[in-house]
Design a protein that fits this description.
CATH class of the domain at 43-149 and 214-281: Alpha Beta
CATH architecture of the domain at 43-149 and 214-281: 3-Layer(aba) Sandwich
CATH topology of the domain at 43-149 and 214-281: Rossmann fold
Structural class: alpha/beta
Radius of gyration: 20 Å
Organism: Streptomyces davaonensis (strain DSM 101723 / JCM 4913 / KCC S-0913 / 768)
CATH superfamily of the domain at 43-149 and 214-281: Alpha/Beta hydrolase fold, catalytic domain
Pfam families: Abhydrolase_6
Strand content: 15-25%
Largest sheet: 6 strands, parallel
Order of helices and strands: HHEHEHEHEHEEHHEHEHEHH
Helix content: 40-55%
Distance between the termini: 68 Å
Shape: globular
Strand order of the largest sheet: 2-1-3-4-8-9
Keywords: Signal
Protein name: Secreted protein
GO molecular function: catalytic activity
Number of helices: 12
């Protein structure tokens, strides 16, 4: 006796068939369609905002809004945070289907991601580092974080895992969460309310231990014009480390009295630097 499939099963099969068919198509038309419906840049470069550890793309919301009001196309992708090589490869693929010139903006660990993802892409006209790691090839975010004193990630310099982080094992490795009781100090330098900090801590995306410890393979800042925003009150990456990396990269640098999450507390400053990078490299 034949058994007819349920409506939900037919819908699932239809969706699977559509995905399979779509996989065989070129993806460029999709990028063009997205550009037509979402981006109204009028020839401006697309700004790609890359979040770091213990955050997600929603942290860029105010920055996105201001850039869009100024006429910039904007993308704020969700980064897996599971490994520097894989995260950079993920971003590089996204850039391939994003039309036009590009400005990549990285916050925190996102700086390492954009440095590697931009390598060899001649459409990237500027790199903007926002309280970010700017590693050279062979350097990891974890090593750079302890190169200078001042980070509040650990009160024990000999701890294998910084004491402000909570390790959570999974089948493929270890995720590192920023402990809720440390979040406001480490990530925000106590500059936002306890209520706001508690929400951000509850919604954070963890970083894989591999991601923070994996050495960079590329340093696109050696060939791409770079800009840096140093957060002078940063409790995650020591400001001295941010200044060192920015100077080494030859980045056009500005500084703000701000915490690590400077894009939350000083979005106007971040937007001004991005717009400056767009103007000076167009």
């Amino acid at each position: 006796m034949s058994v007819s499939s349920s409506p939900s099963r037919r819908s699932a099969l239809a969706f699977a068939a559509a995905v399979t068919a779509g996989a065989a198509m070129a993806v460029t038309p999709l990028a063009d369609a997205v550009a037509d419906t979402r981006y109204t840049g009028g020839g401006r470069p697309t700004v790609v905002l890359v979040h770091g550890a213990w955050a997600d793309a929603s942290g860029w919301s105010t920055v996105v809004g201001q850039l869009q009001e100024a006429g910039f196309p904007v993308i704020a992708p969700a980064i897996p945070l599971r490994g520097l090589s894989s995260d950079a490869a993920y971003l590089a693929k996204l850039l391939e289907v994003t039309p036009g010139p590009l400005i990549l903006v990285g916050h925190s660990y996102g700086g390492a991601v954009i440095s590697q993802a931009a390598a060899g892409n001649d459409r990237v006209q500027a790199l903007v580092y926002v309280a970010a790691f700017i590693p050279d090839a062979g350097e990891s975010a974890a090593a750079l974080a302890v190169k200078f004193p001042g980070s509040h990630l650990s009160d024990d310099p000999h701890a294998e895992i910084p004491t402000a982080l909570q390790p959570v094992p999974y089948d493929g490795g270890i995720d590192l969460y920023l402990r809720p009781d440390k979040f406001r100090d480490v990530f925000l330098s106590n500059r936002l309310s306890r209520q706001r900090a508690a929400v951000l801590a509850a919604t954070q995306r963890p970083a894989g231990a591999v991601a923070l410890g994996e050495p960079a393979q590329e340093a696109a800042w050696k060939t791409v014009p770079s800009y840096a925003l140093v957060a002078g009150a940063d409790h995650t990456i020591p400001p001295a480390a941010e200044r060192f990396m920015a100077q080494r990269a030859g980045a056009h640098t500005v500084e703000a009295d701000a915490p690590h999450a400077v894009h939350l507390t000083h979005p106007d400053t971040v937007v001004r630097l991005i717009r400056r990078a767009a103007k000076e490299t167009s």
